[in-house]
Design goal:
Structural class: alpha/beta
Largest sheet: 6 strands, mixed
Strand order of the largest sheet: 12-17-16-15-13-14
Number of helices: 21
Number of strands: 17
Shape: globular
Length: 625
């Protein structure tokens, strides 16, 4: 009887110890390092490689997540569960995928990522903030931090815990199609704007170790500093091209914002498609592993861009096994495949089993991915809920966006002489003209990366306020507002308008589609400027992602405002045009005279701008009765 009791007791102790051991990585009371170590000791090679894979929503299903141990899903630009999908629909879809991940042997949750680069821009009814080029003009890091916090809430409202933002490129040539994603040509302004990271992720606790990622709970998201490194410095601004600069220049201009991002606990870093002095960044071991991980001490995970490893070769995908080897060996931890995931898994598995990629490299990648997942609480709270759905497009966030629009506007000219300013405009007038292709076009106002990857035209893409509607909301009831998109001179002269507001600019674009060698205002914008401004006092509002050619029209125009891509809250434009608030924005980009001067940045020997970096006229608020 005693012998049996002792045996039973020993068996009970062994069983208890086994259960405790099994639960260690699931126990939030355990130290982070112990949880990671415990989980990794249990993982097979197949499970580890699965964690390194990110697939597009359209390639995913609960079964795919379960069968291939996939670590992450993304929604690419415009990839939505349904047109105008509600936050409830988003949450349901994300949770279905997550159920597949949780049904695996170890129950490792997946992380869902999305491009939320000026608000939650893929999602219908979300607040669309000004693009980064406008936020740079505010010179207000605290405002940008608030925008990060609001964006995090809206992203979480749809059940998503990971945003591919911020872009901390230093755009050195406005011909680049991603220049509006950059805060400035000046790395110091970009560095200041990394304050969006604690907005997105939460403030780093005081005792945090440098380089360790931090995400502060269910109202925050993992952020992504991108695109590492030198993406804004390519020759002639050609997207995904070659940045020719010595190491000192790279470290002085393009690297500083990564120091700031890492010191603020950024969870992930995305690698750039571009090359540095001919070497593809996706294959650059010295800069990814040697500098980012080892020298800067970054402990989060490094993610590729969309099909980024494919583009290591020219043409892309020409030698995929080489691309897999070069990208993973360089230090990329998670690969945005995004479709042919079995090919990636098979190639990487073969390379590990044959000693081409060392197991230590796989372990480094998986440790970093798990670290982020543990830190952000995914193991404790893998399933999204509906508690934040009312945050999407909330009035509070729209007011914040409206404030951002006000502060981003840069007044470039005000009156043909300093003692006869046009702005602020009187709210009370007999009859005023609103003209131009961008005056009543919400899609043009928002720019690229809005609902669709390339953006859209028209007013039915999402909810918001056009500049025309904002004008009508602002003027006195007795003021007649006439809208004519492209009036001729005779129409303008015969109507005896008190003044005109002409809103023109660039059509939406994203990435390579936005590369431009002429930087012209889209037709019929120049015609509208000429016909209207030759016949009546006018203010021209330029809606664009960068400085554009305006010198030929400048003498005709009484006042000119750079509005960038302001987003959904057009009322912010009229807040300042009509004097409820003063102009305060300052150029975060040099405004050139002619494209032949480009590239031209502050400090260059040939610096001869139309308007220099930091330029911006100011006005005082006026009380109009």
């Amino acid at each position: 009887m005693v012998k049996f009791s002792m045996a039973a007791l020993m068996l009970l102790c062994w069983w208890s110890a086994t259960v405790a051991e099994a639960a260690k990585y699931k126990d939030p009371k355990q130290p982070l390092g112990r949880r990671i170590k415990d989980l990794m000791a249990r993982m097979t090679l197949e499970e580890k490689i699965g964690q390194m894979v990110q697939i597009e929503r359209q390639a995913a299903s609960a079964d795919v997540m379960k069968d291939y141990f996939i670590g992450s899903i993304l929604s690419g630009g415009g990839s939505v569960p349904a047109k105008r999908a509600s936050p409830e629909t988003w949450v349901s879809v994300v949770n279905e995928f997550q159920k597949g991940s949780l049904a695996t042997r170890l129950g490792i949750p997946m992380i869902y990522g999305i491009d939320a680069v000026h608000g939650h821009n893929n999602v219908y009814n979300a607040t669309i903030f000004p693009h980064n080029v406008g936020l740079g003009a505010t010179r207000d890091p605290e405002l940008v931090k608030k925008i990060g916090a609001a964006t995090a809430l809206e992203v979480r409202a749809t059940g998503i815990p990971y945003a591919f933002a911020p872009c901390i490129a230093v755009c050195r040539d406005p011909r680049w199609g991603r220049c509006y994603e950059s805060y400035s040509e000046d790395h110091r302004i970009v560095q200041a704007m990394t304050e969006i990271i604690p907005g997105l992720q939460g403030d780093l606790p005081a005792a945090s170790r440098k380089g360790v990622p931090f995400v502060g709970g269910k109202t925050k998201v993992a952020a992504c500093a991108k695109h590492y490194v030198g993406d804004g410095g390519t020759t002639r601004g050609i997207n995904e091209n070659n940045t020719v600069i010595d190491l000192n220049g790279l470290l002085k201009i393009h690297m500083p914002a990564y120091h700031d991002s890492i010191s603020k606990g950024v969870a992930t870093v995305m690698v750039s498609y571009s090359s540095w002095n001919g070497k593809k960044m996706h294959a650059n071991h010295d800069l990814i592993t040697g500098f980012l991980k080892n020298k800067l001490g970054f402990k989060g995970f490094v993610i590729s861009d969309w099909q980024g490893i494919d583009r290591i070769t020219s043409p892309p995908h020409a030698n995929y096994s080489y691309s897999v080897e070069a990208g993973v060996a360089a230090g990329i931890d998670m690969v945005m495949v995004p479709y042919n995931f079995t090919e990636f898994i098979d190639d990487l598995t073969f390379q590990v089993k044959n000693g081409i990629i060392p197991m230590a490299r796989i372990n480094d990648a998986v440790k970093r991915i798990l670290r982020v997942k543990f830190v952000m609480g995914l193991f404790e709270n893998p399933m999204a809920d509906l508690s934040l759905v009312n945050q999407l497009g909330s009035q509070e966030h729209r007011e914040l966006a409206r404030e951002a629009v006000r502060k981003s506007l840069v007044l470039l000219k005000n009156g043909k002489s300093a003692d006869n300013p046009l702005l602020p405009l009187p709210k009370k007038a007999a009859k005023i003209l609103v003209a131009g292709s961008h005056a009543d076009n919400l899609g043009y106002q928002c720019g690229g990366w809005t609902i669709e990857w390339q953006g859209l035209g028209g007013n039915d893409l999402t909810s918001g306020t056009t500049i025309l509607t904002a004008v009508k909301n602002t003027v006195e009831p007795g003021t007649q507002v006439v809208y004519n998109e492209n009036p001729d001179v005779e129409f303008v002269k015969s109507n005896k308008f008190s003044y005109a507001i002409v809103v023109v600019g660039e059509h939406p674009y994203a990435e390579t589609a936005g590369d431009s060698m002429d930087l012209a205002i889209a037709e019929p914008g120049p015609t509208a400027i000429t016909d209207v401004c030759s016949a009546v006092r006018c203010v021209v509002v330029v809606v664009s992602g960068r400085p554009v050619v305006i010198k030929p029209y400048l003498a005709k125009i009484d006042a000119i405002v750079a509005a960038w891509f302001p987003g959904t809250e057009g009322q912010g434009v009229t807040d300042v045009l009509f004097g409820d608030y003063g102009f305060s924005g300052k150029l975060a980009r040099t405004w050139f005279k002619t494209v032949e001067q480009l590239p031209m940045n502050v400090g260059d020997p040939h610096y001869d701008p139309l308007f220099p970096l930091g330029f911006g006229l100011t006005t005082k608020p006026t009380k109009q009765t």
